[in-house]
Amino acid sequence: MARDRVVTRAELPEDHVEPPEAAGVSPLRPQSLEEYVGQPELVEKLGIGIAAARARHEAMEHVLLHGPPGLGKTTLAYIIANQLQSAPPRITSGPALNRPTDLVSLLTNVQPRDVVFIDEIHRMPTAVEEYLYSAMEDFVVDVVTGSGTHADSIRINIHPFTLIGATTRSGLLSGPMRARFGIVHHLNFYSQPDLLTILQRSAALLTMHVEPGALEMVARRSRGTPRVANRLLRRVRDFALIRGGGRLTSELAAGALELEGIDDKGLDALDRRFMSILARDYDGGPAGLDSLAANMGEESDVLEDVIEPFLLQSGLLRRTSKGRQLTASGWAHIKLKPPDGAATDELFEP
Ligand SMILES: Nc1ncnc2c1ncn2[C@@H]1O[C@H](COP(=O)(O)OP(=O)(O)OP(=O)(O)O)[C@@H](O)[C@H]1O
Ligand SMILES: [Mg+2]
Question: What number does the ligand 1 atom closest to the CA of 75 have?
Fold first, then answer.
């Protein structure tokens, strides 16, 4: 169910590949730091890091990017690799790395100043993580030769490289791992003006005809997330073509968003279900995440990574030491009244 949502965590082909009629149009994903909208401090830090590394002909410091899905972590990894090396990054992910040996060929094959991108880096087993330490710090790896009683371990030098780690959960990363990154940055949700800029760029790339106000409406309902903005844009574009002859007006955008079940705050059916269950079954909370997840038939990871960050940011939900809890605005948004004695934020605020 969560996989069918516009805010789904997984990347879909439509995020990158253009539909056939738009062949020849460059992908929506920005290719350079100049095209990357928003996150100004991060962009500045990376711009300096890249320029300095190029000037010194050295590998750039390791970079750790954390933040909710769809805010541009993978995009940045491509941009950094492109600007450092004019080459794509070498990509892997935490769950794909089961044993240290899974890293050996990747690391021994890196070319000088390559970028290695590890997505979901918090999901690497400890043994793999520890294996990475010496590679990151001293650019050496231990390789086992022979087997059985003849097994031996030799230490070999590898080329200096830049590791880019991405995670939706920096809290799950160990202290020693985190300490090995020179640049650590949390990506925040995007502002409305930034989302509008992204939508304007995407609409131009998709050669859409847009009337004033229509993209603003999509921006307001994009949960501060570029990936969601671009997906909604495709939905409203289809809707405008079929229902309105192609030109996107605010009315058509509103119609398309309503059809998608996206409300005026950008919440969809799953968000509202989460809030309704919290309201009805737990009197608004506090409720434990695992219990809520079981109740919804969802994984707690999905709740924590995909649903909660935006509800927290919008002030509809809060986290207390006892669990998740609806705020007064949360109750108002789902048009329910808190029962007498329900712990809303006002009562619980320390
Ligand atoms: N700053 C930005 N400017 C313009 N477009 C952006 C920006 N950030 C992201 N996008 C768009 O949003 C899409 C999703 O971004 P990306 O895949 O980099 O997110 P992510 O942070 O890696 O997400 P996940 O955690 O799910 O892997 C991109 O394909 C790109 O089109
Ligand atoms: Mg990604």
Answer: 18
Does residue 73 carry a catalytic annotation? Answer: yes
Average pLDDT over residues 293-312: 92
CATH 1.10.10.10 residue window(s) in the chain: 269-348
Q: How many residues does the chain have?
A: 350
Question: E strands of 174-246, at which residues?
Answer: 183-186, 209-210
| Ligand located closest to 14 CA | 1
- Does the annotation mark 152 as catalytic? no
Tokens representing 180 are 């090995």
CATH fold of 39-186: Rossmann fold (3.40.50)
Residue 290: partners with Cβ closer than 8 Å, 6 or more residues away: 300
* CB distance 69 to ligand 1 below 6 Å: yes
Going by pLDDT thresholds of 50, 70 and 90, the confidence category of residue 347 is: very low
Q: Which fold has domain 269-348?
A: Arc Repressor Mutant, subunit A (1.10.10)
Just give the CATH number of 192-259. Answer: 1.10.8.60
Q: Which of 5, 71, 228 has most ligand 1 atoms within 8 Å of CB, for mutation? A: 71
Give the residue range(s) of CATH 3.40.50.300 domains in the chain.
39-186
227 is catalytic: yes
Say how far apart CA 269 and CA 261 lie, in whole Å: 6
Looking from the CA of residue 38, the nearest atom of ligand 1 is 1
How do residues 74-126 score in pLDDT, each as one tens digit?
999 999 999 997 788 999 999 999 999 899 989 999 999 999 999 999 999 99
- For residue 48, count other CB atoms closer than 10 A to its CB: 12
